[in-house]
Structures are given as structure tokens and as C-alpha cells.
UniProtKB/TrEMBL annotation:
PANTHER family: TRNA(HIS) GUANYLYLTRANSFERASE-RELATED. GTP binds at residues 29-34, 75-76. This is tRNA(His) guanylyltransferase. The keyword Nucleotidyltransferase applies. Mg(2+) 2 binds at residues 29, 76. GO terms for biological process: tRNA modification. Adds a GMP to the 5'-end of tRNA(His) after transcription and RNase P cleavage. Keywords: GTP-binding, Magnesium, Metal-binding, Nucleotide-binding, Nucleotidyltransferase, Transferase, tRNA processing. Residues 146-272 form the Thg1 C-terminal domain. Residues 228-254 are annotated as: Disordered.
Length: 284
């Protein structure tokens, strides 16, 4: 590019570099989806098609960015996890600007979400001003333990919200209560109380609700065989990941495997060790 007397304005751009050799999580969240879900008549508390659309868009993001090793989604949010060896936007030189990762994920996800909308909601075409958009943020986590705690945090959140929403909407839709009355009655209740309301009053056993609603959605790549009977833990839980453990050619090989691998859509517990022990390649 030719130099000009205007070029000095470039120096106003501040760096926002992410630490190298760390897990990066980009979490996106739908903007104003409470209103958007009303407008397009999402089923309460859980619209299956809306979740399937979120998951389908996230699978496309995984396919486009092989540096992503796992993703977790619930409601209108998705967390995308970049491996510490991620090379995207020249992270090796310590120059991954957070905003580049975040804006790429957000816009790629939004593009697919809108592109696929009519497949999932054929009878409700998207019309301005109700167009879906997403915000996003990047956070770094220094070791496997903290990354797993992050994933657990999101899944616990899914469980707590889903139990509340399921009870609330059952009281309103089946019990004929007003929103305020149901809200009032649920104030200060614990999980056991909600389970009891569902079971005693409505004959609903919360355990029989769909896994996708109770556990959310985890996406990962299937490029190694699962270990049938996990005994030993492969995850090096406490020590930070050291990039130099893998040679450049090893990393290239893994990247190639990731690119070609099938992306699995699952609704399982990711809090306990079992999920990770059965699939040691996800965090390695
Ligand atoms: P913000 O812009 O601050 O994120 P928001 O309205 O999107 O505001 P959230 O806390 O993100 O608020 O909550 C998302 C809301 O979208 C849920 O409370 C729910 O009402 C609705 N929603 C999202 N996904 C679904 C779904 N699959 N089925 C039914 N409702 C959904
Ligand atoms: P990066 O992902 O790094 O931004 P890039 O390929 O998008 O890579 P840019 O420097 O952003 O590179 O340049 C955008 C390129 O897109 C231009 O060089 C040009 O080839 C093409 N392009 C963009 N807009 C137009 C247009 N209106 N007509 C023709 N070509 C265009
Ligand atoms: Mg938000
Ligand atoms: Mg939202
Ligand atoms: Mg949300
Ligand atoms: Mg460009």
C-alpha cells in the first residue's frame, strides 16, 4: 500500500493480543433472543428446531475452523474452544488479536444461522427488523483443569435454567397459572422442590425430559476410536499445556485429521471425567 500523510492514523489501533499456548474460548450469545423467540413463536420452554438450527450453524463453524477442538451450546449461546496450538491469524508470533477471532466466529456463525433459517422455520421467513445477530467475547484459560471447569459451568447453567424453565412453563401452560403467580411460587425453591412440583402436580418425571434440553449440545471431532472402558486419565490436569511437546509436523498431521474428521453432535454429561477419558484426543 502506498504511503500517505494519512497513514499515521493506523497507530491509533491498539493491540489486543491473546496469550500464546493457552485455551481460547469464544462465547457467542444471541442478541435480544427473548424478543426474537416471541416474534417467531419459538415453543416454550424449548423449541427443538431453534436448538437444531443453532447446532447446525455451529457444526459449519467447526468445519470451517479446524483449530476448534470442541464446542458447547445451550439456548441462544455457543462456546467455541480453540486448541492452545491454534495457528489462526498467526498466533505463533503472539499476535492473535482477540477481536479477529471473535468477529470471525460471530460473523461465520451468523451467516450460517441465517442461511439455514428457512430449512428449520419454513413457515416463518426472517423479516427485518427481527433479524438474528450475536455478540461474542474471547477468554483465555491457562490449563486443562480450568478449561474443563469452564465447560462444567456452562452445563450446570443449562441444567439449572432448564429445570426452572420446564417447571415455570408447565405451571403456566398446563397448570393455567399466570406468569407472575408461577414466578412468585418458584421464588426461593431448590431443585428438589421443582422436581416435586413437576411430578406431584403434573406427573412429569424431569429425568425423562430430552437430553438435548437437560444437557445442552457438545460438538467434537471423531478422529480416533473411543476407549470403551476408560481407566486412566490422559488429561494432564494441573500443568499448563506446553506447545513444544508436539513437533511442527505432528501438529500439521493433527490439523489434517481434524479437518477431515466428522463433527459429532452429542447431548451428554461433560462434567464427569468419563466423557474426556473416553475421548482423550479432544484435549491433546
Ligand atoms: P441478550 O441480548 O442480553 O443476550 P436475550 O433476550 O438474548 O438478551 P438471554 O439471556 O440470552 O437473553 O436468553 C435467551 C432467551 O431466548 C431465553 O431466555 C429464551 O427466552 C429464548 N430462547 C433461546 N433459545 C430458545 C429455544 N430454543 N426455545 C425457546 N426459547 C429460546
Ligand atoms: P483477509 O481475510 O486477510 O482480509 P482478503 O482476501 O479478504 O484476506 P483483503 O486485503 O481484505 O484480503 O482484500 C479484499 C480483496 O477482495 C481485494 O483484494 C479484492 O481482490 C477483493 N474484493 C473486495 N471487494 C471487491 C470488489 N467490490 N470488487 C472486486 N474485488 C473485490
Ligand atoms: Mg448476552
Ligand atoms: Mg441472548
Ligand atoms: Mg443467552
Ligand atoms: Mg478481507
Amino acid at each position: 500500500m502506498a504511503n500517505s500523510r494519512f497513514e499515521y492514523v493506523k497507530s491509533f489501533e491498539q493491540p489486543d493480543v491473546l496469550l500464546p499456548n493457552t485455551w481460547i474460548v469464544v462465547r457467542i450469545d444471541g442478541r435480544g433472543f427473548h424478543k426474537l423467540s416471541d416474534h417467531y413463536a419459538f415453543k416454550k420452554p424449548n423449541d427443538r428446531r431453534a436448538l437444531d438450527l443453532m447446532n447446525a450453524a455451529a457444526v459449519e463453524v467447526m468445519k470451517e475452523l479446524p483449530d476448534l477442538c470442541i464446542a458447547y451450546g445451550v439456548s441462544d449461546e455457543f462456546s467455541f474452544v480453540f486448541h492452545p496450538n491454534c495457528q489462526l491469524f498467526e498466533r505463533r508470533n503472539g499476535t492473535t488479536p482477540s477481536r479477529k477471532l471473535v468477529t470471525t466466529i460471530v460473523s461465520t456463525f451468523t451467516a450460517h444461522y441465517i442461511y439455514k433459517w428457512s430449512e428449520y422455520f419454513p413457515e416463518r421467513p426472517l423479516l427485518p427488523p427481527y433479524l438474528p445477530s450475536f455478540d461474542g467475547r474471547a477468554v483465555i484459560y491457562p490449563n486443562n483443569r480450568i478449561l474443563r471447569d469452564y465447560m462444567s459451568w456452562r452445563q450446570v447453567d443449562c441444567h439449572i435454567n432448564n429445570l426452572y424453565n420446564t417447571t415455570f412453563w408447565t405451571m403456566v401452560l398446563q397448570g393455567g397459572m399466570s406468569n407472575t403467580d408461577a414466578e412468585q411460587e418458584l421464588k426461593g425453591t431448590v431443585s428438589a422442590d421443582k422436581n416435586e412440583i413437576l411430578f406431584k402436580r403434573f406427573g412429569i418425571n424431569y429425568n425423562n425430559e430430552l437430553e438435548i434440553y437437560k444437557k445442552g449440545t457438545v460438538l467434537y471431532r471423531q478422529y480416533e476410536l473411543e476407549e470403551p472402558n476408560p481407566t486412566k486419565s490422559h488429561a494432564d490436569e494441573e500443568t499448563p499445556v506446553v506447545e513444544s511437546k508436539q513437533s511442527r509436523s505432528q501438529q500439521d498431521k493433527i490439523r489434517k485429521l481434524r479437518r477431515k474428521a466428522q463433527v459429532v453432535v452429542d447431548h451428554v454429561d461433560i462434567i464427569k471425567d468419563e466423557f474426556w477419558e473416553k475421548r482423550p484426543w479432544i484435549l491433546s
